[in-house]
């Protein structure tokens, strides 16, 4: 029998993705304790501020200069799915929406016809470390939905299903269902114009925690889907009896099952799956369209309108450090 593993690809910071997915970044930063302004209580003068991606001392400022993160920037023509396992993200956007989410929450934002947003990582613990672990996944929109109104949805951790599956030894694998039903458990609703909103597109975003010495079978799905399994934490795992090294992506045959056997400490995986949109993609930076003319129009529109401008006092907007998790949708749907 042929292997369900079609290809293996080593993982770096930006992970390989396939239609309908455009991009996946894994941010894993061990920030130190916070100063009084939600930044790191550590010297910053040894960092290339504004472009700090080097991982000095195990953390990065990214495009932030005093608080880590990504100050105001535009998007058009696709969606961002931001899954925060540890730490917090402060969201602000050109429609007036705002939020703080983390510790298991997911924000799903449809950029559609255009939006500016900032994604800052406020450090809230002034007594000890501030670990941050998150995925940002870009999911393409079909041409018919590229110019829909912007929309964002919060999938709070408490409302995101986690399915436990026991193996023959009673060891339980946990599957966190961000998108795509698993064992008849439906996820929280995604934005209405998403490629994932139609169940025929078989979009799945699952986080899989395989316990020490545990075994779990990834079930077969429909044929001809993009299906990629990312092994990002653990030690020794076998996939269908073949040893699988950590920090690799496994491109899978979608209509075949796959047995995962853990031979070391807890292992963690991300699964991205979906029916390809199958349309030509033209991308430049934060804009993803179908033609060069549409891409040029995106730049022209942004220069002309700023996608609604920026209603916040700072481009690296953060919210009051005493606030908990919240979402205010402003004019967004």
TrEMBL record:
Residues 310-333 are annotated as: Disordered. Residues 313-333 have a biased composition (Basic and acidic residues). Residues 208-308 form the Pirin C-terminal domain. It comes from the Bacteria. Belongs to the pirin family. InterPro entries: Pirin, Pirin_C_dom, Pirin_N_dom, RmlC-like_jellyroll, RmlC_Cupin_sf. Residues 63-139 form the Pirin N-terminal domain. This is Pirin family protein. It comes from Marinomonas pontica.
